[in-house]
Amino acid sequence: MVVDGKGGLYETCIESDNIQSCRLNIVSVYKDFGHQNYYIHIGIAPTKSHDRVEWFVEKAVEIGAEEISFILTDHSERKNIKLNRINKRAISAMKQSLKAFLPKINDIVPLRDFMTKCNNDKKYIGYLNKGKNNHLILSATAKSDYCMLIGPEGDFSPFEINESQKFGFKPVSLGNNRLRTETAGLAACHILNLVNEK
Description:
It is a single chain. By secondary structure, the protein is of the alpha/beta class. The chain has 2 domains: 1-35, no CATH class; 36-195, SPOUT methyltransferase, trefoil knot domain (Alpha/beta knot). Helices cover 32% and strands 27% of the residues. The strands form 2 sheets. The protein has a 6-stranded parallel beta sheet, sandwiched between helices. A 3-stranded antiparallel beta sheet has the order 1-2-3, with no helix packed on it.
């Protein structure tokens, strides 16, 4: 099986192979393979360790994120990312998990710029608010176009939380446990998938 990143899954057989190349014959073609009737966009502050950023992208692709954006926040630990390396990791994860669609990965932008351009229907922001926020699984409705904001290790600043609500982002909880940034991003992605598997 071979995927093209544009929704195509191809059943193939090997015609010839050697150390430098491999030639395949296409036996069957499946268009829009694994197409979902919902859309998950994760906006996340990159962690200090770039390895953890890449690990997050790999796992988010496997779980089913369609778009990943990196955001620069008041408490960000990292102000740039290695987009080429991240894209390579995403392609590898797509192939390994037989996802036919390659997620869109966007370079880092300031949080306010991101919020200004975000036009997803359902917008959420993960925020540690001592049990006062509804859990994401109770807030999200199935078959929607989601955007989920995940902050850095030091969380979003109070100003950023207030600003996000002006742009239509609803504060939500991801559970009682304090999560690292990349874990929170994966938890959100997984929860939104679960909402759509009910």
